[in-house]
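Render this sequence as a predicted structure.
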Amino acid sequence: MSADKQLIMLSALQHYAYCPRQFALIHIEQVWAENFFTAHGNLLHERVDSYEAERRGSVRYERSVAVISHQLHLTGKLDLLEIEGKPPTRYFPVEYKRGKPKLEDWDKIQLCAQALCLEEMCEVTIDEGALWYWQVRKREPVLFNDALRNTTLAAIGGAHGLLASGKTPMPTDKKIRCRACSLMDLCEPNTFRRDHSSAYITALFTDHIQQE
């Protein structure tokens, strides 16, 4: 990637994977709004960040670990990094999330991107990590296989491309996601979905060209 690319926060990849319009509203238009879900998520991360590093047996537990990838132009913090062995022989990132495990990959993409940053920084290969969900109070193992890595790299490329364009896309077609989004009132997805003026103008222009 070119050196002039802007650094993207790891957490922003989850925004992009969830809804590119949400990503653009937050990271291009710089708008934000709290709701119950975001407030609860912030509280959860504050609790996680408040714990100090510790060691249990051969494993060291580091919290709020800052990482960066100069190749992928990513930066951010890991909620928890388990480091086994001395010198380290295994790195295991853990991301804390509210709610419960999801069928979609957007949380896994954020976690995989964390692993990609660690791999670049530490010159290692990381095979797996975990997502810890508040609602079920347990870890969901995540394998960093080729499919997830490719999906994550595609999301990173898409986020960089959208950021470079400076344009906010139309709302997602997956309307159910809008209900849990703190930006719903600012986004006004239904208004944009009902607004067919641009399609109407495009159709008029196309008809005009065809008649000439």
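Summary. Residues 146-165 form the longest helix (20 residues). DSSP finds eight helices and seven strands in the chain.
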